[in-house]
Amino acid sequence: MAGFNKVVKTYDEALAGLKDGMSIMVGGFGLCGIPEGLIDQVKDLGCKELTCISNNAGVDGFGLGKLLEKRQIKTMIGSYVGENALFEQLYLSKEMEVILTPQGTLAEKIRAGGAGIPAFYTATGYGTLVAEGKETKEFNGRMYVLEESLTCDYALVKAWKADTMGNLVFRKTAANFNPMIATAGKITIAEVEEIVPAGELDPDDIQTPGIYVQRVIKGEFEKRIEQKTVKA
């Protein structure tokens, strides 16, 4: 990787510098659009005491579920976690701290972090456990909760295409949380299906400008189906 060329050849290069106790954000919704190879590399590195920010925690044995199996996550900040039995076990046994956040609020906390906005008010969660310990304020006769934004040490995202300068294009619903997470990391690593030369992507198609991305790697994806539904 040199100059404007952000492509790395190995996962060791992609996650160089990741250490115990750091924070990571991981793109995906369920198993759709997850950076599978980067997650596997975090597992292989064996980093512990991680704070993980993601919409959900994968499933047992796949995605972030692999990090749960090795007890690498100390704190999980997420929204939907209902597909992972081990997650439930770790939470109830107090082996892992869980900070549940309404999905729209989580998305905005990440977007705001990437935009340099330290906090914002939202009506979501007022009068519930979500608001406990947080500042509240009335605007135009309605109560709002102050939510602090989120950033991280390493942002791991999955994209469809990238050019060598790190400009990213996502594909349909596989975009989900990935574009906003890409803006919120001190170091953002994109695992992609295809890398093209700089200048080949149509500027109108680029969803994440390369200024946000530090490293790009071409991955191989299993693309496992989380819930397979077939006609009887």
The largest sheet is: 8 strands, mixed
Distance between the termini: 51 Å
- Shape type: globular
- How much helix, percentage-wise, in residues? 10-25%
CATH superfamily: Glutaconate Coenzyme A-transferase
Question: What class, by secondary structure content?
Answer: alpha/beta
List low-pLDDT spans. none
CATH class: Alpha Beta
Secondary structure tally, helices? 6
Domain module count: 1
Mean pLDDT: 95
CATH-assigned fold name? Glutaconate Coenzyme A-transferase
Question: What is the tally of beta strands?
Answer: 11
Secondary-structure arrangement, i.e. CATH architecture? 3-Layer(aba) Sandwich
Describe the structure.
The chain has a single domain, classed as 3-Layer(aba) Sandwich (Glutaconate Coenzyme A-transferase). The strands form two sheets. Strands 1, 2, 3, 4, 8, 9, 10 and 11 form an eight-stranded mixed sheet that branches. The chain has a three-stranded antiparallel sheet with strand order 5-7-6. It is built from six helices and eleven strands. Helix 4 links the parallel strand 3 (73-78) and strand 4 (97-100). The model has no long low-confidence stretch (mean pLDDT 95). It is α/β, with parallel strands linked by helices and 232 residues long. The radius of gyration is 18 Å and the shape is globular. 19% of the residues lie in helices and 27% in strands.
